[in-house]
Amino acid sequence: MLKSLTVGNYALIDSLSIAFDNGFSVITGETGAGKSILLGALGFVLGERSDSSIMLDETKKCVVEATFTVEDERLKPFFEDNDLDFDHELILRRELSPTKKSRAFINDTPVTAQQLKELGSQLVDIHSQHDSLLLNNADFQLGIIDNAADNHLLLADYQAVYHQYVKLVNELGKLKEMSQKNVAENDFLAFQLDELIKADLQEGEYEDVGQRLELLENAEEVKTLLAQSTGLLQDSEISILDQLNELKSTVDKLRRYIPQAEQYLERIDSTKIELKDIAQDLDSLQDSTQFDAASLNEIQERFDLIQRLMMKHHVNDYAELLKIREDLQEKVGAFANIDEQIAKKEQEVKSCEKELTKLAGNLSDKRKKVKNSFEKSVTEIIRQLKMPHGVFEIEIADCKEFTASGRDKVRFLFSANKGIAPDDMSRVASGGELSRLMLAIKAVAAGSSYIPTLIFDEIDTGVSGEVASKLGDIMQKMGETLQIISITHLPQIASKAKNHFFVYKDESNEKTRSCIRQLSRDERVTEIAKMLSNDKITPEAIKAAEVILDFSR
Questions:
Q1: Rounded to whole angstroms, how far apart are CA atoms 83 and 87?
Q2: What is the largest CA-CA distance in the chain?
Q3: Is the residue at 429 inside a domain?
């Protein structure tokens, strides 16, 4: 349940902290005092989309923090899946900095807004008067029944298999489409592959062939350069090696006068050895390098073949040509054993479908098992709400196709009038009837709900008198098993609550601020008296407020 809410620098709220109790609580206050702002702050910390305009003072950080107590272990899977530490006291915090950067935390661990929203949806259910429109939504209706049937684990198992089933069906479809393609396309691919295979392309070959071709095409220049190199080193009259010998002799004479010249002799000898090695290598290279027209022609043809293939396949990189060969091998190979692949995939689909049928049947059985009792309970409540002939029914029809939620199509049917058969709510229910019907459904669903806190935001709009009192009774009853918080304008509902909070404006300073406080017994009498007499506190209204409070205990 929601234990406390702390809000700072949010809309008209400068700073406030409010502690909530279990059971049924109400929040009242004049229009515009900030009741919706309080709900907005709660939505913000539960992961709803933020708006930079929510900051009261744009130079300060906006912070909203909500503390929850969790009595069971149902939330543990969420914490395990998100690598978070689980605790029976959960602290959710959301911040918005002056630079408009939003941050979210669960028990002081940074998380994404989506993670915060996912956890928040399992902690609090906020229901406004506009949410009654959801009653006409097929997914919402099915979710209500699955909640009543405690199907969340079974549904998770089904959906895991369903996603695998969809994947297999898509893969099978692609294989069949591939099989039905024009045979000529496969023949063309096979021809291209055969041409590349015959070319016997090797890794790194293109660069090597290019270098060899350049060498052969410049044979005369290469010969001349090799001859010049060896001549400079050892074959000419003034070769480098001869000059080094002369240099060594000169330095050797110099050693008689300068002893440290000894070290130069050693370095000259080292240089001579290195240059002799170079000369030998150049000689060997000159001997081994053969230039003939046949070699040039062979290399030229190989180079031209590779270039033609690259142009044909529209690539500039030799590696891309090799990749095309690999892709063609894969495609032609796929065509070669396509029938075998289709047969194997069909068997996988059939096996998955069998498991899916079993899980869908289990889901359907559990839904149908709770159907009658849910219909009866909702009908009993709506008849207490000034619809004495109201009837609520649930239609569960079998579907041929698998869906993400099974093979059932759920439809809520309703009739408010005697002798009129229940029909689709979108056709027969008025706005006021939908609101009361939604409350009845929520009240019944609360018995099996794993969401511990339910908030009603002015769902009592448009009702009064006996209906309002019955609404209060229902919320009071729901408060025995859930934490119920209702924002209301009706004294009949406010008087039923265990705890009463009052939202008001503080205009004592330069700027208006929204504030909230929990009312004492005497303050509740005054507030309910104002609600009974349109803000005019009379002795009669005070007496009536005391009576209605005492009667509601």
A1: 13
A2: 137
A3: no
